[in-house]
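In the previous chapter we treated chains in isolation. Here, by contrast, the input contains two separate entities that must be folded as one system, with a combined length of 1040 residues.
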Amino acid sequence: MLSGWFIILASFGYIGLLFAIAYYGDKRADAGRGIINNPYIYSLSIAVYATSWTFYGSVGRAAADGLIFITIYLGPTLMFVAWWFLLQKILRISKANGITSIADFIASRYGKSTAIGGLVTLIAVVGITPYISLQLKALSTSLTVLLEYPEIVMPKADSGMPVVSFTAFIVAMAMAVFAILFGTRHLDPSEHHEGVVAAVAFESIVKLIAFVSVGLFVTFGLYDGFGDLFMKAAAKPELKKLFTISPSSNYAQWVTLTILSMAAILCLPRQFHITIVENVGTDHLGKAVWMFPLYLLLINIFVLPIAVGGLLQFPAGNVDPDTFVLTLPMSTKNEGLALLAFIGGLSAATGMAIISAIALSTMICNEVLMPALLRMVWLRLNERGDLTSLVLNLRRFSCIFVMLLSYGYFVFIGESYTLVTIGLLSFAAAAQFAPAIIGGIFWKGATAQGAFAGLGLGFVVWIYTLLLPSFALSGWLQQSFIESGPFGIELLKPYEFLGLTGMDNISHSLFWSMVVNIGSYIWVSVNTEQSAIERIQAAIFVDAEKYSGTAGRSNLWQGAAAVDDLRDLLYRFVGPYRTEQAFKDHARIRGLDLDDLMAVDAEFVGVAERLLAGAIGSASARVLVASVVKGDIVSLDEVLQILDETSEVIEYSHRLEQKSSELEIASDNLRKANEQLQELDRLKDDFLSTISHELRTPLTSIRSFGEILFDKPEIDLAQRKQFLSVIISESERLTRLINQILDLAKMEAGSMDWEMSEVDAGEAIEEALVAMSSLMADKSIALDLKLPDNLPHVFADRDRLIQVVVNLLSNAVKFCSGPEPVVKIAVEADGDTLLVRVVDNGPGVPDGVEEMIFEKFQQVGNTLTSKPRGTGLGLPISRQIVEHFGGKIWFEKAAEGADFRFTLPFTRGFQIAE
Amino acid sequence: MNHSVLIVEDEPNIVLSVKFLMEGAGFDVRVASDGNSALKEVNQSPPNIILLDVMLPDRDGYSVCEAIKANADWQDIRILMLTAKGRDLDREKGLALGADDYITKPFSTRELVERVVEVSKELAVT
């Protein structure tokens, strides 16, 4: 026996189960292991599209008009199968920009405009309220019908009112509570309510099972399969026309309804919410494009059989076809199935109402209440502490408000309409968003003013041609408003506007609202300018692919903000945990040290704005962020530079410029390198020419005397000896020269074999003196030697050290002059180096060439031809050697004569020993 | 009368050999070891022939050659550049400045003598 209390218990039991699922879903999501992260649950959740309107109303529609009910499912199927790219683009844009609702999406596209956000919210609330009230109506009707079991009694519009109303009120509040509990649990920047989504997906399974069960029961229980059912129906002409397409079918209506439902699947706030906002993986759409249409197909297979079955079972017409799903099982006393059907209807209604309430409350709060409150400066909202609870409470009240409004519509208007008509009223309202959305993601030129005009005027037309007549039909306006137009003006008749007849009410309204909506949207957009932020947003939305990696990251903010200001702001709306998490993540990506960060740049501000936008909507977020950011939104010119087509050209030419300047630099470098090479080449030529000259000179003497001696054997002995000695000395000179050239080349190339060891420098100097002693004696040059005993050792190549001393001594000997030529050698310890001085009393070195003399083949002061010629390599070689030992050699300016000095570092070991 | 030869050369051993060769060929030989003393010698008594080294300690042989050729009184002096600078460029420069011949060191003594004798014969004709 299906008693009243059992039905109520079962209903609450079922709702309890939904609570449990939602609770579990939230818990899992909190733990980071969400259960809804798969395409199947995503597709099932989209099936929230199938509401109690589908569950009860499709059968009602089919019973009245036949196959046309299918258009409501044809549209979404077309959208998912053929126009999925549209959904994908919207999804991508929304994910990149933290979109929280359809109002946020449209407002965001048109420059984060609060006006548009508010208008969209208004349209949504006014438009969707009848739809929610439809759920209340379906639910309370089905409950009332079921409570009469085993009788089949239709609730009477006049007498049954209080009971029905009370049931509806309880249902409305229960749904509000559900929406509040799971939809406003905490402020989530991503606006994900995984528990609710899980519950909705579960409901989709339940309603499908329930509906299919009833269908199977009717087709195979009451009748003997489809063949039997339709054979029996075909026998009755008034039933036959339901499932045959006759020439009298209204094709225009088929097209209108298909288009309308296509728009609806995109534009209904709850569909946008569940498909776009609640989506946790953009790739889930791939499976949903066939799974969701499949679901629609399954739930529609039995619509016609149930309708036909119902009409056959209740030929008297005393049973509302909207209740066939419930009354058919009841009529055969199939209690279990009747209860299942009721639960299925309950699922369809609650799923829709809850998601709609969440979507609408988010919009009301983010797009209307928060911007309004933020504008009320006297509230000092900016200075208040934690605002998350304020935002959440606003949403909770919004939920209750939406449900109360729906309840009100149900009580005052709903009774006079069938389910389908109410649903289509909402569809037509939601369709007003389509031009702004589709235009917004494909047409960069669409302006906020254009969108506002289109939305606003389309909405006005919708009110005039659908909403006001619905008031009139319910008796809240004069019936004459419909019949003869306002003030009796025929042309303004709401169902035959400007004399347009021959269309059903919905097609008529859609036609006029779309003409006005699209017309004004395009006309105003073309004739108005976009603001800077509109341009940016337009580019981000239209070129979503281009900006997918950087969407919203384009630096809309100029200037910087103090990190603490931003932190304070975010703490209040999204809480410390999420704020710090987001800051840390961003800092890590950018490689910033958060602890050292005082002021943050535009990119950082952008991150904060998006986080905030997720919680309270982009329009409110912008107002708030603007209050802490010093500086303004980027100027128009800069925006042009960043985003516009023109800017791409600028960018391109800039890059070209850069490339050409890079080329210039490169060619400049090449030119310099070439010059250096030429200089080196010239130096090499000079060097070779000099070497050649230096080699030719002794060779000239050798060859000349060789030939002279060969040609003139008669030369006397003394002269012969003289000539031969020239040949010998010039040969020695040549040998010395070649050796020195080789030495120098080796040293310069770094391939010299040095035999480094600890050397007693004093001993080495003495050895050099011995080598030079005979020459000095020949020239009667006096030696003044200061060589202290026990000098620390130096680290050097002994032979090369001797070579340096010999070179300096031979220079000194060569240039010594005066009646008393003297060469002075002084050795002393100077700190940690050994200083050796070789001084002569010759003409010295002319000013300005002190450095030159250490270069190759630079001989100076070589005026006295009697002096032995040097090779011009002695000093350069000495410098190479001394520098290799870690010392230095230089010429010290002296009053008379030349004073050459060099230093050698002592070896460390001996230094310590000292 | 013997033609006079001025040897301008800073390498004493080369001077020694060239002087021996020129005297052997019957010329009156004078020697200058740098550019300025060479011009001084010419000024005192212009020689018929100058054997001019290019690399001199004070001023190079080119400028000495130029200075002599610039003086109208010294147009008859024959100048033979005698240098270790063997590049074509150096040779052309010397000839362009009015040198009558250009001999590269190390030279063949016979060739040197022949050339100087040849020049002196031209002098004898004119």
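Chain A touches chain B at residues 689, 692-693, 696-705, 707-708, 711-712, 722-723, 726, 729-730, 862-863, 865-866, 869 (CB under 8 Å). The CA atoms of residues 39 and 284 of chain A lie 4 Å apart. Compare these points with the single-chain example from earlier in the chapter.
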